[in-house]
Amino acid sequence: MNGTNKHISILGAGESGVGAALLAQAKGWNVFVSDFGKIKDKFQQELTNNNIQFEQEQHSEDIILTSDVIVKSPGIPHKAPIIQKAVAKGIKIISEIEFAGYYTQAKMICITGSNGKTTTTLLTHHLLRKAGLNVGLAGNIGQSLAKQVIADEFEYYVLELSSFQLDDMYDFKADIAILLNITPDHLDRYDYKMENYTASKFRILQNMTANDWFIYNADDPIITEHLALTNTKAQLAPFSLKEEQTQGAHANEQQITITIKNQFTMSIHDLALKGKHNTQNSLASGIAGRILDIRKETIRESLSDFKNVEHRLEFVAKVHGIEFINDSKATNVNSTWYALESMEKPTVWIVGGVDKGNNYEELAELVQDKVKAIICLGVDNSKIIEAFQGKIETIVEAKSAMEAVGFGYQLAKKDEIVLLSPACASFDLFESYEDRGNQFKDAVRAL
């Protein structure tokens, strides 16, 4: 895409917006960056240092609506007035990933799904790096893809893609696409219609050819139903925890088996990531590795020595035989469901915060199975108490991470677990889920 003397506006000046601005400038575009909110100091500095024109806390329509192209931050909804006006004028609106894709020939391994994206992206990146491939990490994670494409040193990129990013992608193509699962999330952006959200996830298949691969969860009914109605040229590699796959992967209680190019097996007990959902993540990454002809030894090693992302089922410490686990990144019921499902010992569960319309009913069965006591960590815990009163004998309330950890230490015994998996956002008592996780870890270490 030739940018010479063409005008590009970039809406949103976070990691992806600033990355897109730097790439656009490098490719000869006239660049204008506009953010309706406040721009973080470090991003302002970067724009200033590179002589890129920007504004904050407003959108200057006279400049934006005369653009040839608009790169939109994934956080800006299509209903935003400035976007509606741009659409009415027929201006091309794309995502940073789409824009970056115009300027690189690198192979793209793209990962989406409602849960497990970050873990699978990091695991796949770890595997490719271990195999000695020249690979970058981008999308919803790490440095902006557009920024990395300026130097364009990588032959492969592993990208974590949200449905919001996929919505503004048109010509971009994945060489390997991974779809982990589809559960209701962000439905407010999709007119509260599940089929709209599903269609958005399936955009990951756009432009794929017979040389490309689609790795997907065969146990997810929404995916299999939609796939049956989808016409794709890509080769299919399903993974399952229920049935064997002739081309793909499956797992049982003992081992995982990947059947791509020839058979690979590995004991399930050697996987670094525990829990059924993590077995799915490992299967997806392993398939991608085999498609890329990575040696079996390398795959085995990578799947067994991977260290997961901070605040996601992160082991903190063992104190007098009690294991403390930080899953502060679980900000919805679905993420917490996965966390509880992977607990193999009696668990004291720390839950609560700002509720995004949670239905705790979905956790009822798991909680009765796994949880011996509940510690509520939020300003208003009435909904949680109401949901589990009478089902769980001990429910207490804490107003700080320190107090919650103290209760956990009293309520758990040797060979039991204290799990922080809040199922809620954090901003009633904390600055962010990272702040909540860090305070939790500090309190555990102070025991």
TrEMBL record:
Keyword entries, A-Z: ATP-binding, Cell cycle, Cell division, Cell shape, Cell wall biogenesis/degradation, Cytoplasm, Ligase, Nucleotide-binding, Peptidoglycan synthesis
One GO term (biological process): cell division
Record-listed ATP binding positions: G113, S114, N115, G116, K117, T118, T119
Pfam families listed in its UniProt record: Mur_ligase_C, Mur_ligase_M, MurD-like_N
Domain Mur ligase C-terminal: start-end pairs: 311-424
Top enzyme category: ligase
Gene3D superfamilies associated with the record: Mur ligase, C-terminal domain, Mur-like, catalytic domain, NAD(P)-binding Rossmann-like Domain
UniProt superkingdom: Bacteria
Gene Ontology CC: cytoplasm
Pathway(s) where this gene product acts: Cell wall biogenesis; peptidoglycan biosynthesis
Compartments in which it is found: Cytoplasm
GO molecular function terms noted in the UniProt entry: ATP binding; UDP-N-acetylmuramoylalanine-D-glutamate ligase activity
Catalysed reactions, semicolon-separated: UDP-N-acetyl-alpha-D-muramoyl-L-alanine + D-glutamate + ATP = UDP-N-acetyl-alpha-D-muramoyl-L-alanyl-D-glutamate + ADP + phosphate + H(+)
EC assignment: 6.3.2.9
Family in the record: Belongs to the MurCDEF family.
Role played: Cell wall formation. Catalyzes the addition of glutamate to the nucleotide precursor UDP-N-acetylmuramoyl-L-alanine (UMA).
Name of this protein: UDP-N-acetylmuramoylalanine--D-glutamate ligase
Protein species of origin: Lishizhenia tianjinensis
Taxonomy of the source species: Bacteria, Pseudomonadati, Bacteroidota, Flavobacteriia, Flavobacteriales
Name of the gene this protein is made from: murD
